Amino acid sequence: MIDRRAFLAAAAAATAGTLAGCAKKSPAKSDGSGSAGKPITLGFSQVGSESGWRAANTQSVKDSAKAAGINLKFSDAQQKQENQISAIRSYIAQKVDVISFSPVVVTGWDTVLKEAKAAGIPVILTDRSVETSDPSLYVTLVGSDFESEGERAAHLLEKVLAGHTGTVKIAQLEGTTGAAPAIERAKGFAKIMKASHPDWKIIASQSGDFTRAGGKQVMAAFLQAHPDIEVLFAHNDDMAIGAIQSIQAAGKAPGKDIKIISCDGVHDGFVAMSKGQINAIVECNPLLGPQLMDTVKTVHAGKGSTLPRWIKTQESDYTADQAAAALPSRKY
Ligand code: GYE
After folding, report:
1. What is the 3-state secondary structure (H, E, C) of 117-134?
2. Looking at the domain 146-284+317-329, which fold is it?
3. I want to staple 56 with a disulfide (CB 3.0 to 4.6 A). Which of 92, 166, 305, 332 is the partner?
């Protein structure tokens, strides 16, 4: 479990020290330029290209770095932790000003983060969190509250099932094993089940790695083993879209015979929802670039200690009846 709040007190003090050190090393103006008017160089290690959410997030990071006058070094880790660690090491070797990454899984980062700290390069987490016993290893996290997204998914299911009594058989398509959004969305959903819905049963739960292909394959196996599934909770839209294909192939109607709740709110998710195939979506906003670039500038200017430990993203919930109206104004 990741208890970010537990870090807060110790972190404020520890982080202030670390960042003050970095700031002394390279004082900067807060307009995207460094001390001698040189642009800030940001090394960014992206998780991969697994989903529509990720594509929108990558575009947002690239566009906003450009708009902010920040020199971006970008790499795609293809969902492999070892690739992210190599990318971070290469940014350290290149002496970038700031490093940011979206950690594919939560554990196993301390060694490389200590290397960044020793080199005086501040690290900003984006999108996903890490588990570490040393809060001074990163400045802040810019991203969503995934546990609350899981809770919101359960509350959306309450709406979708309105009037239903008795047992509800639920299948869960989990995100990448060990990734913060997979762990925390499952946790938030389970929390509401435990508190309010003794009749809801998760009868199958497995990772589909946040991809369409994964969602399709795992859902086909679920349906073979459990033809009586009534609800699918997919940790992202892409897996839900893959699962829809398997549900149809099994001769069932997605959104009717099997109710579907997913997370993200990407364009294709909204299209499926406007057709009634997905019943409700918990929005998870991938457009983190502008906030990340502001944070990079603040940190590079030596003011990281003024930032909260977690800069949370604002999001909404949507049900199928709202999908068609919302679709034209969706930005990703
Ligand atoms: O929900 C999924 C993506 O970390 C919030 O990663 C992100 C998740 C998102 O692959 O589609």
Report:
1. HHCCCCEEEECCCCCCCC
2. Rossmann fold (3.40.50)
3. 332
pTM for the model stands at 0.90
Q: Are 257 and 277 in contact (CB under 8 A)?
A: no
Give dist(CA 220, CA 244) in Å, integer: 10
pLDDT given at position 2: 38
Provide the token pair at 185: 């969305």
Protein fold of 32-144+287-301: Rossmann fold (3.40.50)
Task: Please tell me the distance between residue 45's alpha carbon and the centre of ligand 1 in angstroms.
Answer: 15
Say which residues have a Cβ less than 8 Å from residue 9's Cβ, sequence separation at least 6: none
Residues β-bridged to residue 84 = none
Furthest C-alpha separation in the chain: 68
pLDDT of residue 15: 37
3-class DSSP state of 25: helix
Mutate to test the pocket of ligand 1, among 47, 54, 184, 211 (most ligand atoms within 8 A of CB): 54
Domain ranges of the chain: 32-144+287-301, 146-284+317-329
- Please identify, by atom number, the ligand 1 atom nearest to the C-alpha of residue 264: 1
- pLDDT at position 35: 55
Candidates 237, 200, 249, 242; CA nearest to 218 is 242
Q: Do domains 32-144+287-301 and 146-284+317-329 have the same CATH topology?
A: yes
The residue assigned the tokens 């929802």 is 273
Residue 37: per-residue pLDDT: 74
| Mean pLDDT of each 10-residue bin along the chain, 332 residues long | 37 37 44 72 98 98 98 98 98 98 98 98 98 96 98 98 92 98 98 97 98 98 98 98 98 98 98 98 97 98 97 94 94 94
* Beta carbons within 8 Å of 251's beta carbon, 6+ residues apart: none
Expressed in angstroms and rounded, the spacing between residue 210 Cα and the centre of ligand 1 is 7
Residue written as token pair 């549900």: 247
12-37 per-position pLDDT tens digit: 333 333 333 334 344 455 566 655 57
Q: How far apart are the first and last CA of the chain?
A: 30
